[in-house]
């Protein structure tokens, strides 16, 4: 039924892949250069890695970033599940659409607007800019994507399942924990990973709401990159790349074992 | 019982909506009516309609349009052929993987690649074109932006292609449609939702890419995002920044309406 790709398409895909990966490998290769610039590879060295690993400030920032990502992903997943259930249980179609529209506002909003408006919000409410403000904003902008990942799974679920459980005397908590949650687990995982990605990848929002004392990796990279090229950034990005690879491969195998098609946090 | 269940889930969710969706928008609008000294004014809006700001807005839209268009042109065939590869899940994973690498690192890589002594210029030299200033030009801004956004364009299109009912293609084939007709009349219309979400996912961020403009475009390209960042974090003129943000929000709402999915 499906035709295989000919030579042309294969070549096209190959070029896209090369262009997608070339800059990343370029970064990685120069992390081993003993020079100080990102051209003319000089000799092989690991000194930039040593620099990175000895930089306690940087390591604290990495830790901050991970803590923020995991915490915000976990909390926004819980909030997002609530949101999806709330939308699911609202039977009025118009209310449902209104909620969905409000939900999507933050997804389509540009980072800069989110960042600026959260900055105003935190300043007015009196939240000190730093860990808390960054965490709150990451939770805030991850919630809608979790909702969008979970909701289709809920809609896929046959309502008779819940009716049957209720007829058999299941309590509300039983219905949630034994019927609904197991059914929507792939959506939850997808949402969690998307939230994690959003948090790790975010720069603009964090840049607005982070104060002087607190920094995440992307903000740190930005301020270093603005000062010009330093090969320790290359070493750092190589490390990040491999960490990402391990995470993705791990996730791929989990998804494959589950065989439920949660596919790469993309969801269908 | 149903009603109590419903209320329970709505409480945290509505709190989130009020605090982080409704309140921020209202605050942006509110702040747009104040000048630097905290006095109520309409001056920010007047200023926005001067040629300086209008030109910036227009050029920001133009760049975003270019970035979206080029991304779509590259991403659609990629997604299409990707669905026909053998281990497509794995290939898709490999396409998405770069999008997990921080965008700043990718922009940073181009500081080296496009640099005066970088490999691009080496290539140009060996082709006899000679060294060019690539960094801090419109080209570098467009290239880096497209590079960063491509995975986000491929993904929704790929999903739409996968969801498509393939028996329709067989039907078209049986009825004698050429490949191009099949694509134009069946595949593309059926994946239009994916294209729309892809365009949405690219266009709006492209309006506000202040970090890329700062890193690889110097001050050649000023987007709406750059201006907002400038006003909020550098000149501390929150009122004017909020005013630009108001227009960005209006633009976003407009784009959302334009790309709304048919149900």
TrEMBL record, chain A:
Spans through the membrane: 12-32, 58-90, 102-125, 131-154, 175-197, 235-254
Domain of life per record: Bacteria
Topological type in the membrane: Multi-pass membrane protein
One Pfam family it belongs to: BPD_transp_1
Keyword presence, Cell membrane: yes
Residue stretches making up the ABC transmembrane type-1 domain: 62-251
tRNA processing listed as a keyword: no
Compartment(s) of residence: Cell membrane
An individual GO BP term: transmembrane transport
Listed GO CC annotations: plasma membrane
Keywords: Cell membrane, Membrane, Transmembrane, Transmembrane helix, Transport
PROSITE patterns given in the database record: ABC_TM1
Family note: Belongs to the binding-protein-dependent transport system permease family. CysTW subfamily.
Name of the featured protein: Spermidine/putrescine transport system permease protein
Species in which this protein is naturally found: Croceifilum oryzae
Automatic annotation (TrEMBL), chain B:
Gene3D superfamilies xrefs: MetI-like (1.10.3720.10)
Entry keyword Iron: no
Membrane-traversing stretches: 12-33, 61-83, 90-114, 134-158, 201-218, 238-258
Subcellular location: Cell membrane
Gene Ontology BP, a term: transmembrane transport
CDD domains in the cross-refs: TM_PBP2 (cd06261)
Keywords from the UniProt entry: Cell membrane, Membrane, Transmembrane, Transmembrane helix, Transport
Stated name of the protein: Spermidine/putrescine transport system permease protein
């Amino acid at each position: 039924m499906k035709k295989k790709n000919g030579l042309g398409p294969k070549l096209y895909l190959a070029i896209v892949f090369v262009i997608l990966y070339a800059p990343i490998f370029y970064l990685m290769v120069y992390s081993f250069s003993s020079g100080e610039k990102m051209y003319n590879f000089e000799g092989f060295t690991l000194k930039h890695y040593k620099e990175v690993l000895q930089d306690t400030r940087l390591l604290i920032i990495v830790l901050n970033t991970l803590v923020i990502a995991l915490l915000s992903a976990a909390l926004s997943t819980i909030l997002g599940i609530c949101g999806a259930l709330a939308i699911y249980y609202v039977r009025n179609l118009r209310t449902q659409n209104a909620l969905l529209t409000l939900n999507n506002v933050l997804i389509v909003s540009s980072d800069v607007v989110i960042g600026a408006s959260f900055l105003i919000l935190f300043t007015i409410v009196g939240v000190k800019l730093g860990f808390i403000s960054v965490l709150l904003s990451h939770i805030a902008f991850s919630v809608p994507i979790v909702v969008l990942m979970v909701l289709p799974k809920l809609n896929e679920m046959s309502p008779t399942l819940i009716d049957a459980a209720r007829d058999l005397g299941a309590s509300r908590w039983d219905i949630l924990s034994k019927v609904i949650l197991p059914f929507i687990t792939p959506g939850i995982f997808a949402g969690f990973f998307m939230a994690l990605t959003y948090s790790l990848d975010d720069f603009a929002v964090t840049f607005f709401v982070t104060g002087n004392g607190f920094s995440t990796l992307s903000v740190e990279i930005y301020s270093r990159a603005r000062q010009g090229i330093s090969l320790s950034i290359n070493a750092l990005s190589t490390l990040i790349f491999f960490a990402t690879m391990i995470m993705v491969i791990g996730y791929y195998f989990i998804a494959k074992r589950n065989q439920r098609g949660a596919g790469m946090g993309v969801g269908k | 019982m149903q009603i109590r269940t419903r209320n329970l889930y709505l409480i945290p969710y509505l709190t989130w909506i009020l605090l982080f969706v409704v309140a921020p928008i209202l605050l942006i609008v509110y702040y747009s009516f104040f000048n630097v000294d905290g006095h109520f004014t309409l001056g920010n809006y007047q200023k926005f309609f001067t040629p300086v700001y209008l030109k910036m807005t227009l050029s920001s839209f133009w760049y975003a349009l270019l970035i979206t268009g080029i991304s779509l042109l590259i991403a659609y065939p990629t997604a299409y052929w990707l669905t026909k590869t053998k281990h497509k899940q794995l290939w898709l994973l490999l396409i998405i993987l770069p999008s997990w690498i921080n965008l700043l690192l990718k922009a940073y890589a181009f500081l080296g690649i496009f640099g005066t002594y970088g490999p691009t210029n080496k290539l140009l030299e060996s082709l006899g074109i000679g060294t060019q200033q690539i960094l801090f030009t419109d080209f570098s801004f467009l290239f880096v932006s497209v590079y960063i956004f491509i995975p986000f364009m491929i993904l929704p299109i790929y999903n739409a292609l996968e969801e498509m009912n393939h028996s329709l293609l067989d039907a078209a084939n049986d009825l004698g449609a050429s490949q191009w007709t099949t694509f134009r009349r069946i595949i593309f219309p059926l994946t239009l939702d994916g294209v729309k979400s892809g365009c949405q996912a690219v266009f709006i961020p492209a309006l506000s890419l202040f970090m890329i403009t700062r890193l690889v475009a110097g001050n050649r390209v000023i987007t709406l995002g750059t201006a907002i960042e400038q006003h909020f974090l550098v000149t501390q003129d929150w009122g004017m920044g909020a005013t630009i943000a108001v227009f960005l929000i209006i633009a976003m709402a407009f784009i959302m309406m334009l790309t709304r999915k048919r149900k």
